[in-house]
Specification:
By secondary structure, the chain is an alpha/beta fold. It folds into three domains: about 15-75, no CATH class; about 80-100 and about 150-340, Rossmann fold; about 110-145, no CATH class. Helices cover about 40% and strands about 20% of the residues. The chain has 13 helices and eleven strands. It has a six-stranded mixed β-sheet with strand order 8-7-6-9-10-11, with helices on both faces. A three-stranded antiparallel β-sheet has the order 3-5-4, with no helix packed on it. The chain has a two-stranded parallel sheet with strand order 1-2. The longest helix is centred in the N-terminal third of the chain and has 24 residues, at about 50-75. It is elongated. The chain starts with 14 loop residues before the first strand and ends in a 7-residue tail after the last helix.
């Protein structure tokens, strides 16, 4: 009976659109459990009407189950077959990204002595010119654009903000959005290996539980396939056991402001999202403001899931060039190339 489809609640785990038990699209249950059935999703208003004591009890059950799952993930033997399923699917894309990384130019302005100035410190090499009446005999420190092909003085900075919300797990059976997100993270983890001199990056999650869920710290990048697989499994487990809700705006704004404070050649924030903002009453204009809240940071959104034309409609309301729709992981290297080269003509 566990794996039979049913709509309703208080019966058994694995249902859909029900209440009080682990399933999909229902209300009051402790966590999500995909048994492979069509999802019947109750409205957000119905979910909000669940009594506080029920929500609290469900949350405690979910937290306990999540901690147990994390313990299993970190104690389990390395599953080579599982990792190969993800890694094999994105092998060509990893090579494409490395070609892009090899071609990136320095963008950060360098502080140099600017000569032939009318104010500043006296330039020793211009003393004779001064005696003949020349006015531009001073020098001062200033920032200049690096010459084409010059090496980076500092690494570029990237924060990947990934969607690990409940809807990623709930609708994974519909369009593979959670697995696509896990593939994208695997792609970054593999492609950026040995490019630490060019790119310093970290990965954080956003979900109903919060906006800054640590997955990969910039000073502790996964060193091998087992550690990479643990990150991906943690994403999957978080999406299954987290509370419903959305912190895309808070996560984006926080990531942009944090990255802006760091020294870097260039700064990028890339938000992976399933575009499910409408359900939580999030206005696209607010998301646009979060993406553009600091001119020192180049922030972009990649929508990797969509109910109907949700992602396309959201993209049309955001600033041009700031968002992309990728329903196939193979599209991501090209998107990253557009993102990383979008600043080449900028002088900001």
């Amino acid at each position: 009976m566990f794996n039979n489809p049913h709509i309703g609640g208080s019966t058994w785990a694995g249902g859909t659109g029900g209440r009080d038990t682990a399933g999909l699209g229902g209300k009051g249950g402790p966590y999500r459990l995909d048994a492979g059935h069509k999802v019947y999703q109750v409205s957000q208003a119905e979910k909000d009407a669940v009594p506080e004591e029920v929500r609290r009890a469900a949350r405690e059950m979910a937290e306990k189950a999540f901690k147990e799952r994390l313990k299993e993930i970190h104690m389990s033997e390395y599953d080579a077959a599982t990792y190969e399923r993800f890694s094999g699917a994105i092998r060509r894309q990893v090579q494409s990204i490395r070609v892009i990384l090899d071609s990136l130019q320095a963008k950060g302005k360098e502080r140099q002595w600017l000569r032939h100035q009318s104010i500043g410190e006296l330039d020793d090499t211009k003393i004779i010119d001064g005696l003949t009446g020349e006015k531009a005999i001073y020098k001062r420190r200033g920032e200049v654009e690096p010459e084409l092909g010059s090496p980076q003085q500092k690494p570029k900075r990237l924060r990947l903000l990934v969607d690990v919300s409940g809807s990623m797990y709930r609708f994974n059976g519909l369009d593979g959005r959670l697995e696509r997100s896990m593939e994208a993270v695997c792609m970054v983890l593999e492609a950026f290996e040995h490019y630490e001199h060019k790119f310093k990056y970290d990965i954080v999650g956003h979900s109903g539980d919060g906006f800054n869920i640590e997955l990969v710290r910039s000073e502790k990048i996964p060193k091998n396939n087992k550690e990479r697989l643990q990150i991906m499994k943690t994403m999957h487990a978080h999406a299954q056991f987290c509370m419903s809700g959305d912190h895309t705006l808070e996560g984006t704004a926080h990531a942009v402001q944090e990255i802006a404070r760091e020294e870097a050649d260039e700064r990028f924030v890339i938000v992976l999202s399933d575009a499910n903002l409408e359900r939580y009453g999030i206005n696209p204009e607010r998301f646009a403001r979060a993406l553009t809240c600091n001119p020192q940071v180049n922030a972009f959104a990649i929508f990797i899931g969509s109910l109907g034309d949700q992602a396309e409609r959201l993209q049309q309301t955001l600033p041009a060039g700031r968002s992309f729709v990728a329903m196939d992981t193979k599209q991501i290297p090209q998107i990253l190339q557009q993102i990383f080269t979008s600043t080449m003509l900028s002088t900001a």
